[in-house]
Design goal:
This protein is mainly β. It has no helices and six strands. It comes from Variovorax humicola.
Length: 102
């Protein structure tokens, strides 16, 4: 992740942040059709492949219980600020995207 000091889209003195890929997630799914809607409730697996230049960052991870990585869903066609959880009742109030645990 890099910060571009000359780019201030909101006029508050904060630099624009740019991310670059450190790897790729691979699974058997190449389109949304048939993809599990909740990975935790599925027996499907995927593999995170880290690009070689970032391998040193994995040194000594064996002692950790969890790894957190941020993803960019490159096939998404929209980015709503408010979403309705997929399995929610139609009468349920919508949740904000930042409240959803993905």
């Amino acid at each position: 992740m890099t910060a571009e000091p000359d780019a201030d889209p909101n006029g508050v003195g904060a630099p624009r942040i740019a991310c670059r890929p450190v790897g790729i997630v691979r699974s058997r799914f190449t389109e949304v059709t048939g993809m599990p809607i909740q990975a935790a409730a599925s027996e499907e697996t995927a593999r995170l492949e880290l690009f070689g230049e970032f391998a040193p960052g994995l040194r000594d991870i064996e002692g950790f219980a969890h790894l957190i990585f941020v993803t960019h869903m490159h096939l998404c066609t929209r980015e709503p600020l408010e979403v309705l959880p997929f399995l929610a009742l139609p009468t349920a109030p919508s949740d904000r995207a930042c409240d959803l645990r993905l």
